[in-house]
Amino acid sequence: MNKALVRLMAGFRRFKEKYFQEELENSIYRRLASSGQTPKTFLIGCSDSRVDPAILTGALPGELFVVRNVANLVPPCEPSAVGFHGTSSALEFAVVNLKVENIIILGHRQCGGIRALMRGPQENPDSFVSQWMNIAKDARKVVMQEHGNEDEETRIRYAEMESIKVSLRNLMTFPFVREAVESGQLSCIGVYFDLEEGELWEFDQDTNKFRQLELTRHGVT
Ligand SMILES: [Zn+2]
């Protein structure tokens, strides 16, 4: 049998022992299977294998509705009839059908998509990644204007954070998101995971800056 599948099955056996306990009438999956999912949070994360939202947050099954794409980007609202819109359709389902209360955009350090964006599209401008990363081209522009003299790694780090701000702005171009935010039913949050330092940063709309979250035993300050 394929080695990756063997490993996957071993993991699935542990998962099943934990969440499908036959003797427990109210085991997590019995409940989720009979009453359906009611996640309160929609998370947009990167496809990067080191940034799995459920592992990072210890979320239980049913807690997070997630879409992952290259560089955790939210595209602007575009006509649904043209092209295919994976992230936009997940967003629509989360807000309109599931009526989530929070949207979290989870960016991260060492993002390959952002690195490609900062190196410019000259390598392969027609590739899917280059086209996709155009969503964040304003982030590149801002960083080159404000931090053009910094070294490449520092510029990439700024761009990783700046692109979260672009995605937060793009969220508001979807009428159903704007409406839910304006009526106080939905919050949009930008978070940055520094995987080198093991730190979380939150975007503060008031100061327009990221601030490091201090982790305590019971949560966050
Ligand atoms: Zn990434």
UniProtKB/TrEMBL annotation:
It comes from Bdellovibrio reynosensis. Belongs to the beta-class carbonic anhydrase family. It comes from the Bacteria. PANTHER family: CARBONIC ANHYDRASE. Reversible hydration of carbon dioxide. Keywords: Lyase, Metal-binding, Zinc. It is an enzyme of class 4 (lyase). CDD domains: beta_CA_cladeB. This is Carbonic anhydrase. InterPro entries: Beta_CA_cladeB, Carbonic_anhydrase, Carbonic_anhydrase_CS, Carbonic_anhydrase_sf. Pfam families: Pro_CA.
